[in-house]
Amino acid sequence: MNQHSEKNFSSLDRKIQKRIFGAQKNEITEHHVYMKLSKVVGKNNPKNAEILTAIGKDEKTHYKKWKNITNRDIKPSKLKIFFYWIISVLFGLTFGLKLMEKGEKSAQKNYRDIIKYYPEIADIIEDEDRHEHALLNMLDEEHLQYVGSIVLGLNDALVELTGALAGLTLALQKTRLIAITAFITGIAASFSMAASEYLSTKAETSAGSQEKKSPYKASLYTGIAYVVTVVILILPYLFLQNYLSCLGISIGAAIFIIFFFNFYISVAKDLSFKNRFAEMVFISLGIVGLSFGIGFLVRILFKVEI
Length: 306
What we know:
By secondary structure, the chain is mainly alpha-helical. The chain has two domains: about 5-140, Ferritin, CATH 1.20.1260; about 145-300, no CATH class. Helix content is about 80%, strand content about 0%. It contains 13 helices and no strands. It has helices spanning about 5-10, 15-40, 45-70, 80-90, 95-105, 105-115, 120-135, 140-145, 145-170, 175-205, 215-240, 245-270, 275-300.
């Protein structure tokens, strides 16, 4: 950096300087995240490794541009590197990296205030807004191809089982009996849903659908999503005695599952979170209320005493 640029930087407002240092730190941190993950996936998915390496090199270039302004070396955040690495390993590259990019949106807005001092950073903004986002969308992850199957399993399990639990809770009022009944119902329903998804995907493939999904994998994703949801929802009934408390915890767990999965999909697939979340919660709670009322009527009309 020449003396003129150095003088300009030293004369900037402290807040602007802090933003520039923060931007420089973010770039070198993201560089290390991408390079670390490229090594993790390199053997199993060379294509993804190449994409991550390309983005990592871009981040290093951005870092050098900021360094030309500050004339300082800045160390990356080891905590962020570890955080985004573990998130990407646990929940997939696309989710982890897009979550990281979303976290930097506010930082990118700050860049707009810095352009008037350093017009050359406009290239960094363009890369962040377009190039890297396009590269991230090129990542190939199998489970994202079967999001529809996972959604089917989750939706049906949440709607059907929360409704069944509400009705059984008031009708039976015995936590272990409710858990056993709901588990048998849920497992049977999971097999039914998996079989339906297999036939549906196979029919789409035979009809020449552009999506090259495996019917076997589609049914497996649907069945697993359903079974996992069933197990989570009935767990309170296996450990607690108060049936109303169990129902409350199960409903809370259902809302959490809806929240987490919709947040995951909204990040990984760039979809709206609020509308999808509100719709699923409204449907699930509506079914719960209706089923609870039916259970109450069944208990009174048939004088069920267990």
